[in-house]
Amino acid sequence: MEAFHAVGASWGRRQKVTDPEHRAELLRQKRGAIEGTGRGRLQQTVPAIEQLFERWVEAGRNIGSMTAQTLKLLDLYGTALLAEAVDHAIERGTSDPGALAQICEQHCCRNRMPVPIDIELGDHVPDRDVIPHDLERYDGKKDR
């Protein structure tokens, strides 16, 4: 692809100068390469996520970081809840993965679901498996 040549010059600090046609061509080329990536996984499971990717690109966010954070949410909360959170974020005009996480957590709280926590305990931890049991005995109700 030919290099982009600016018509005018910009001497401002930290300014971005982009050619919309150049950006569109890059996005077109990248779409063909992303099918086996985390971004491709997100797009296959939550198609509306594409709008968030566009917002991240426009805002100059680090797409790799945004993708990694969103993939963690997908693994923690599952496809249905993340898709709902993405739709809600789009409605609210937000796109940050932190906002997506908050929407997912609020959903869990509203529906009295436990917030998933990804904790891996090593084999050296002797009591890592907790067997569910009746907790009333801790309240002393069985003794009365």
What does this protein structure show overall?
This protein is mainly α. The chain contains seven helices and no strands. Helix 4 crosses helix 5. The chain is elongated and about 75 Å long.
Describe, in short, the structure shown.
By secondary structure, the protein is an all-alpha fold. Helices cover 56% and strands 0% of the residues.
Largest beta sheet, briefly? none
Low-pLDDT sequence parts: 1-7
Mean model confidence by pLDDT: 79
Beta-strand share of residues? under 5%
| Tally of alpha and pi helices | 7
Kindly state the number of beta strands: 0
First and last CA, distance = 81 Å
Helix content: 55-70%
Shape: elongated
Radius of gyration: 23 Å
**How would you spell out the order of helices and strands?**
HHHHHHH
Q: Label the structural class.
A: mainly alpha
Features:
mainly alpha, elongated, 7 helices, about 140 residues, disordered N terminus
What's the arrangement of secondary structure elements?
Elements: H1 20-33, H2 38-45, H3 49-59, H4 63-77, H5 79-92, H6 97-110, H7 136-139
